[in-house]
Amino acid sequence: MTSNVTTTPREIPSLTATSTSVIASARGLVKTYGTGDTAVQALAGIDVDFARGELTAIMGPSGSGKSTLMHCMAGLDTVTAGTVVIDGEDVGSMNQRQLTRLRRTRLGFIFQAFNLVPTLTAAENITLPLDIARRPVDRTHFDAIVAAVGLAKRLHHRPSELSGGQQQRVACARALAARPAVIFADEPTGNLDSKSSTELLAFLRRSVDDLGQSVVMVTHDPRAAAYAHRVLFLADGRLVAELTNPTQASVLEILGSLSAVDDAASARELTSVGA
Ligand SMILES: Nc1ncnc2c1ncn2[C@@H]1O[C@H](COP(=O)(O)OP(=O)(O)OP(=O)(O)O)[C@@H](O)[C@H]1O
Ligand SMILES: [Mg+2]
Q1: How many degrees, rounded to 5, is the angle at CA 219 between CA 213 and CA 222?
Q2: Residue 112 alpha carbon to ligand 2 centre in Å
Q3: DSSP strand E in the chain: where?
Q4: Is residue 236 in contact with ligand 1, taking CB distance under 6 Å?
Q5: Chain centre distance of CA 106
Q6: Residue nearest ligand 1's atom 24 by CA
Q7: Is the Cβ–Cβ distance between 217 and 25 less than 8 Å?
Q8: Which residue numbers delimit the ABC transporter domain (predicted)?
Q9: Neighbours of 6 (CB within 10 A)
């Protein structure tokens, strides 16, 4: 597989997918935390399209705005400026009730901490979002997901009786159970050993290839990013590079070139301070 790299030294004007089938998009997305001297611009104007039926990875240094982007896309945080559209619906124009409904019915989440309910079994955790939304559980779909995550023999165990990898797979199954339009995963393999993480990534990719799921995943791990169809790179709240059909090597190459740009910028700053 060959990698197609699009990168410019510091910024590219827009990373909008050429495909017409876009599941989630942002235009002119700005997020500023705080005000005055202490204000932090976490997102500095982002235009992005996430393609339907693809696994998109988001990478970038710590503090570059990856989690903020996911939270703003998912309506978990308010935006300072710009628009977010999920599956044709403008998130910014929604009231609290509509937002809650969007999150319950159209979005799935997988966080680094698994957020499972300790008193419920694996099966109950998986169907919880559907139960809360009072939606029926589609048994065929449920069985397909449980088989895919390899949890059939663990369904009646509580989270404390499961390994970290198994717990994360329950969290994945829970995100998939409601057939959301898109799943947002923030470092889903961050707490997993290499075997569990391989299983989870293979499963996420299968959920895209076999079940037609759309997934956006933040990761620091080039090996994880290589499972994606496309990788977007953030730096200082901006999208600075994009890679389609990534490999571990091509991801590492971009990360290297981005930190080289960072090093050059720091060197310039040091020189001007010294001058
Ligand atoms: N609630 C908040 N209040 C103030 N600043 C915040 C808040 N949340 C995030 N930030 C700041 O916004 C910037 C982006 O944070 P974000 O969490 O999106 O980074 P990240 O790319 O996910 O980093 P990491 O890889 O460490 O998870 C950082 O400078 C962070 O300190
Ligand atoms: Mg983060």
Answers
A1: 105
A2: 9
A3: 4-7, 22-33, 40-51, 55-59, 81-86, 89-90, 107-110, 182-186, 215-218, 230-235, 238-244
A4: no
A5: 15
A6: 62
A7: no
A8: 24-261
A9: 11
CA–CA dist 199, 138 (Å, integer):
24
Segment 179-215, tens digit of pLDDT = 899 999 999 888 778 887 888 898 889 889 988 899 9
Q: Which residue, 22, 20, 17, 42, is CA-closest to 31?
A: 42
Name all domains of the chain by residue range, CATH numbers in brackets.
53-74+104-269 (3.40.50.300)
**Single-letter residue type at 189:** T
pLDDT in tens, 123-168: 999 999 889 888 899 999 899 888 877 888 999 999 999 988 889 8
Q: Is the dihedral of CA 67, 192, 202, 246 positive or negative?
A: positive
Structure tokens at 109: 């989440």
- List the one residue out of 18, 66, 33, 39 whose CA is nearest residue 240: 66
Amino acid identity, residue 155?
L
Q: Closest residue (by CA) to atom 11 of ligand 1? A: 42
Task: Give the strand pairing for 55-59 and 81-86.
Answer: unpaired
- How many CA atoms does the CB half-sphere of 257 hold within 13 Å? 16
Q: Is the CB of 62 under 6 A from ligand 1?
A: yes
Q: How far apart are CA 261 and CA 256, in angstroms?
A: 9
Residue the block writes with tokens 């994009």: 242
CB of 33 within 6 A of ligand 1: the answer is yes
Strand arrangement of the beta sheet that strand 89-90 belongs to: 40-51, 22-33, 81-86, 89-90
Q: Return the structure tokens found at 106.
A: 């159209």
- DSSP structural state of residue 90: E
